[in-house]
From TrEMBL:
It comes from Acer saccharum. It is found in: Cell membrane; Vacuole. The keyword Transmembrane helix does not apply. GO terms for cellular component: plasma membrane; vacuole. Residues 27-84 form the Cathepsin propeptide inhibitor domain. SUPFAM superfamilies: Cysteine proteinases (SSF54001), Granulin repeat (SSF57277). This is Uncharacterized protein. Keywords: Cell membrane, Disulfide bond, Glycoprotein, Hydrolase, Membrane, Protease, Signal, Thiol protease, Vacuole. Residues 1-21 form the signal peptide.
Amino acid sequence: MNALGCLLLLLLLFPLHTCSSVSTQLFEAWSSNHGKTYSSSEEKQQRLEIFEENYAFITRHNEMGNSSFSLSLNAFADLTHHEFRSSYLGLAAAPTNSDVGEPRYVVRDVPASIDWREKGAVTGVKDQGSCGACWAFAATGAIEGINKIVTGSLVSLSEQELIDCDQSYNAGCGGGLMDFAYQFIIENHGIDTEEDYPYRGQDNTCNKRLLKRRVVTIDGYKDVPANNEKLLLQAVAAQPVSVGICGSERAFQFYSKGIFTGPCSTSLDHAVLIVGYGSGDGVDYWIVKNSWGRHWGMNGYIFLQRNSGNSQGVCGINMLASYPTKTKPNPPTPPPPGPVKCDLFSYCSTGETCCCARSFIGICFSWKCCASKSAVCCKDHRYCCPSDYPVCDTETNMCLKFTGNVTTEAFKKRGSSREFRGWTSFAEDWFL
């Protein structure tokens, strides 16, 4: 048993309010386990107090004994409920003119249970961080599923492309809707892979070059009629389905395992992916993939009660369901990219990123290369960070993740190659 597990056992034996030193030790162990750091002792003390309040809430729930699910101290344990709600959701209001169209599935017998993970149609759990892009993760997850079913290939797709480029109706980290994401991909004639266009957890300018790398396509999309659990079940029996839910309940924030039965509002504010369904201990449930990382719930998943007797479903899961359609093969695989051009005369090697080293009035005259694809160029013009550690700490030359403050060492840039040293070199020497 690790240190955190031992402390949890102690706290079961000694209540929190009678053993503050143990709660402090638990907080330290939890902080270390989740890579949490704080800017000052005052902030750390404030987070400890929030942590203790959340632990008391979790303990009260788990001690009830009659609940079908349990809670735990996950990565959100130092956040107030208001902070959590304002940072980790992101489903926009449903369009008033949504065209439901004819459902793809007719009434028919469905299997008693199905898990699309077992059929290889679900990619690994992803982490949206504090960017409200749940809509993008739910949409890509549904497309990844139907693409595997139709083509036999499981490809992880780019949420960042949707965040950066799908700006007609969706608002990146500010929220969005799956139907609009599907429509954007249809109009763009496809979407790029996560490997090509990696996730950064923040709004960025659309990369037009990568926007043209259309690896996976869809034909269209369908909306499941609202509050029709029978048709939703038929849809999930055929493919993973994106849905809106209420994800802002405090118990949902700290969900650990079991079948979540609520109580839960039906005010939709979060988007997730149904990847199957089943039954356990006489209770039917949906298998739901979330986008809060593997440290939340059951390795990133939750069982949400099905057949609850409420037509809207627990947390409103029956209210806003949609899925992409696909019958055609994907276009030929785009050729691998060649050297990365920085300007007309400078370039970096394949798989590197151009970073400006010297500029004048907004024009870059000198480039350096970062040995990482889609890297973040630090403002000190000396270092850069890989896309999965996108926050530069120029004081320590370290790179941070967008959640958890986990760090890795920054890359030092090297000089770019030049095809021609004409007026660019002259301007560089003259102005700089």
